[in-house]
Design goal:
The chain is α+β, with helices and mostly antiparallel strands. The protein has four helices and ten strands; from the N terminus they run ααβαβββαββββββ. The chain has one domain: Beta Barrel (Lipocalin), CATH 2.40.128.410.
Length: 179
C-alpha cells in the first residue's frame, strides 16, 4: 500500500512540475501584449461553484469522483483590443435573472466597446487585470491573473449569476508584438 501511495505522490509531483514549467508565450511578447492591452485569453478549463453542477459532474461515468473542473473545447475565452472586448465563455451555474433573449445565447457572450481596465501587480509579481464592461446590462467583472509563463486564471462575477472561474493562457494574433 505504501508503494502505491508513493507512486501516486511522485506522479502528481511530476505532473505539477511539467504543467507549471510550460511556457505559453515568451516573456517579451507577453509583457508587450499586456502593456498594450491587446491579447486573447484562451479558456481551457472551467471551475463551476454551483453545488448542483458539481453534483451532476460527479455523477457522470467519467466524472472522476470529486471533480470540480471541466475541460473545455478550444474556442472559448475573450479577445481584448483597445476599443473592443469580445467574450465567448461557457457558463455552468445558477442565473438569478435572465431574459428569454439572453437564454438563447447560452454562456457568457457579448461584445463591449465601453469597458475599463484596472491593472496591478500581485505579491508574486503576476499581473492582475480587472476588466469591467460598462455597456452591458449584466454587471460583469473579470479578474484576470496573468502568470509569467503566459498561463492565466480568470474569475467572472456578475450581479445576476453565481461566480465561475476558468484556467487558460494568453496568446496574441500577431506574435511580433512591438512596444
Amino acid at each position: 500500500m505504501k508503494m502505491k501511495s508513493l507512486l501516486l505522490i511522485l506522479s502528481f509531483a511530476v505532473m505539477t512540475v511539467s504543467c507549471t514549467s510550460q511556457v505559453y508565450l515568451d516573456p517579451g511578447t507577453l509583457t508587450a501584449a499586456v502593456e498594450k492591452k491587446e491579447f486573447n485569453y484562451n479558456a481551457t478549463k472551467a471551475f463551476p461553484t454551483n453545488s448542483d453542477v458539481i453534483g451532476v459532474m460527479n455523477a457522470l461515468p467519467n466524472g472522476g469522483g470529486a471533480s470540480r473542473m471541466l475541460n473545455l473545447d478550444p474556442g472559448y475565452g475573450f479577445n481584448l483590443k483597445k476599443d473592443l472586448l469580445s467574450v465567448s465563455l461557457p457558463y455552468f451555474g445558477r442565473a438569478f435573472n435572465i431574459s428569454p433573449a439572453d437564454a438563447s445565447k447560452g454562456g457568457i457572450q457579448f461584445e463591449s466597446k465601453d469597458f475599463s481596465i484596472r491593472e496591478s501587480k500581485t505579491g508574486k509579481g503576476n499581473t492582475l487585470l480587472v476588466i469591467s464592461p460598462n455597456d452591458q446590462r449584466t454587471g460583469y467583472k473579470f479578474n484576470l491573473e496573468i502568470f509569467k509563463n503566459g498561463s492565466a486564471m480568470l474569475s467572472v462575477s456578475s450581479n445576476d449569476r453565481q461566480p465561475i472561474s476558468y484556467d487558460g493562457n494568453i496568446s496574441v494574433d500577431n506574435v511580433s508584438v512591438s512596444k
